[in-house]
Amino acid sequence: xxxxxxxxxxxxxxxxxxxxxxxxxxxxxxxxxxxxxxxxxxxxxxxxxxxxxxxxxxxxxxxxxxxxxxxxxxxxxxxxxxxxxxxxxxxxxxxxxxxxxxxxxxxxxxxxxxxxxxxxxxxxxxxxxxxxxxxxxxxxxxxxxxxxxxxxxxxxxxxxxxxxxxxxxxxxxxxxxxxxxxxxxxxxxxxxxxxxxxxxxxxxxxxxxxxxxxxxxxxxxxxxxxxxxxxxxxxxxxxxxxxxxxxxxxxxxxxxxxxxxxxxxxxxxxxxxxxxxxxxxxxxxxxxxxxxxxxxxxxxxxxxxxxxxxxxxxxxxxxxx
Amino acid sequence: xxxxxxxxxxxxxxxxxxxxxxxxxxxxxxxxxxxxxxxxxxxxxxxxxxxxxxxxxxxxxxxxxxxxxxxxxxxxxxxxxxxxxxxxxxxxxxxxxxxxxxxxxxxxxxxxxxxxxxxxxxxxxxxxxxxxxxxxxxxxxxxxxxxxxxxxxxxxxxxxxxxxxxxxxxxxxxxxxxxxxxxxxxxxxxxxxxxxxxxxxxxxxxxxxxxxxxxxxxxxxxxxxxxxxxxxxxxxxxxxxxxxxxxxxxxxxxxxxxxxxxxxxxxxxxxxxxxxxxxxxxxxxxxxxxxxxxxxxxxxxxxxxxxxxxxxxxxxxxxxxxxx
Lengths: 321, 324
Ligand SMILES: Nc1ncnc2c1ncn2[C@@H]1O[C@H](COP(=O)(O)OP(=O)(O)OP(=O)(O)O)[C@@H](O)[C@H]1O
Ligand SMILES: Nc1ncnc2c1ncn2[C@@H]1O[C@H](COP(=O)(O)OP(=O)(O)OP(=O)(O)O)[C@@H](O)[C@H]1O
Ligand code: SF4
Ligand SMILES: [Mg+2]
Ligand SMILES: [Mg+2]
Fold this sequence. Notes:
The complex is a heterodimer.
Chain A: E1 5-20, E2 23-38, E3 42-47, H1 53-60, E4 68-73, E5 76-77, H2 83-92, E6 93-96, H3 110-120, H4 127-140, H5 157-169, E7 175-179, H6 187-203, E8 207-211, H7 215-221, E9 224-229, E10 232-238, H8 239-244, H9 249-256, H10 297-301, E11 307-308, E12 315-316
Parallel strand pairs in A: 3-8, 3-9, 6-7, 7-8
Antiparallel strand pairs in A: 1-2, 1-4, 4-5, 9-10, 10-12, 11-12
Chain B: E1 2-11, E2 18-28, E3 33-38, H1 44-52, E4 61-69, E5 72-73, H2 79-84, E6 90-93, H3 97-100, H4 107-119, H5 123-136, H6 142-145, H7 155-167, E7 173-177, H8 185-202, E8 205-209, H9 213-219, E9 222-227, E10 230-236, H10 237-242, H11 247-255, E11 303-307, E12 310-313
Parallel strand pairs in B: 3-8, 3-9, 6-7, 7-8
Antiparallel strand pairs in B: 1-2, 1-4, 4-5, 9-10, 10-12, 11-12
Helix pairs in contact in B: 4-5, 4-7, 5-7
Bound molecules: adenosine-5'-triphosphate (2 copies), iron/sulfur cluster (SF4) and magnesium ion (2 copies).
The site of one magnesium ion has 4 residues of chain B, from helix 1.
């Protein structure tokens, strides 16, 4: 697998320093995550809110500085790279941001926002070429080209989300890191955008990291998924296998909590998912131990490492499965 | 509790208004959760902002219709005027947390501010209540995170701050605009459970906007389906899932990834919704409808009751079940 990996992340650690009540604390947002993305592959990432998914994505595109670890793109190290190498990677690895509104400048038109990467890098030889590229990209994400003249506040949430995707794909990147790209979309547009991403993947041989909390969506677009919990990967497997037979206790809770589109099968109040973990006091053993129905003494002291479980490259980080 | 009649929200000049919400009516009783679903851009957020009296200025305006809160007309009242008139206990959870949180203020102060407006408490008491609210929405380290700035939180954590602010006024009417889209399902199920519990315990009326049919099925008592600024179907939740009557609702159900696992391509509803202003005579869904017939293109369809509490805006409603 690592032979034809386009992106390889090894033992990534990222922390943030914050002040709380006059004291300094360190939040360990990513705590030794390793991933590898094959050429043309879509790898899904799921995990609890706050477990570090966005931070992994932002580290890859150079928006946060990791403490340690390695991120290599086509064999070249990305952490600390500069000059033309950095520029080339920036155009090749593009991120679709989770909060589309916050990442759009309210005073610039949609067209300007979509063309930004092209403008900065001198892609367009003429105004006509520029507007053709904007129109084509907007159309590709299912927006009418007339949106180019509009401002972000005139758009609905879902329309802004599609603008976010358009911005990412304009320079025809080889990797897209999509952070919850369809969560704000209604199901029919969601289906259109997922189909679009599958098409782009085929046409451009795009590789993708697809961050989502919706395992149904991940099941649709990616054959492999990594499950994160408190900054670490706790399970990695074929998406089908995870949905049919989750192994890690956190993954099991995740699968059980998927809201079924059937009002006669209600789960609200019927499932107990436990308290979310503290970011400031990381437990010494397994981070999931306090909530885990399978926890044993060993789990309180030993950090479980990701180890192979069965076939198909499946791996799980748990002492008791 | 909350009653909306024929609400019409328009943009553009007075002489040639474009309706982005066109004649929307619904009621929500105490202790009831109405789910509102519909295509992106169909007017869900505009409807809720109009109901709250929070439409952005200048821009969209309420051109017609009434919003009644416990029988009193509050349509033209600003939120502060509603508070003065004793109708203040309405709150909204906004769709995009970053636009409604102040980026340079600590979240504890922002929640305490909301507590102060409604309870009159301030200082340490308000902060204590802020902390309780963060616990309620399952924020990890609630006491410590009171002094966090919005950018130091993850997407889902920010969303929970928004929910805490909305709950600060102990609302009687709560409008939640996609409040759980950024949350993983284990936290989502807790938040939905919390809203259901508060709704029952405090007799709240909740308008819950989402595009997630799974969430609707789990939470809503009744559902309104919106398309191009109009409510095209309303029904009790079981009836809607069992027998959707509008062709658009049926299309939505067919698009759900969970109904299509393993499919090479997801079914979509082909075509685009009409832009405001391009709606002519006839049914707004006609150009995309799988069951369209000649009369649909000529006259707008009637609103028909098809069963108890089940209404559909369609001349030729479906009557079968959903293939699954
Ligand atoms: N700039 C920052 N300063 C301090 N803490 C931060 C900062 N950015 C993120 N964090 C913390 O790091 C952790 C990981 O955040 P991240 O945004 O990566 O989570 P996530 O997995 O994307 O969550 P979500 O699903 O809610 O978006 C969170 O607990 C968050 O509070
Ligand atoms: N300030 C504005 N000026 C002009 N048009 C606007 C403005 N705000 C929204 N619109 C338009 O009004 C329509 C309804 O928008 P609204 O935000 O209510 O959609 P929505 O149903 O909430 O969609 P989503 O699910 O994507 O959030 C959209 O077509 C949008 O482009
Ligand atoms: S009235 Fe006609 S076009 Fe409209 S939904 Fe019904 S069948 Fe379709
Ligand atoms: Mg995130
Ligand atoms: Mg909206």
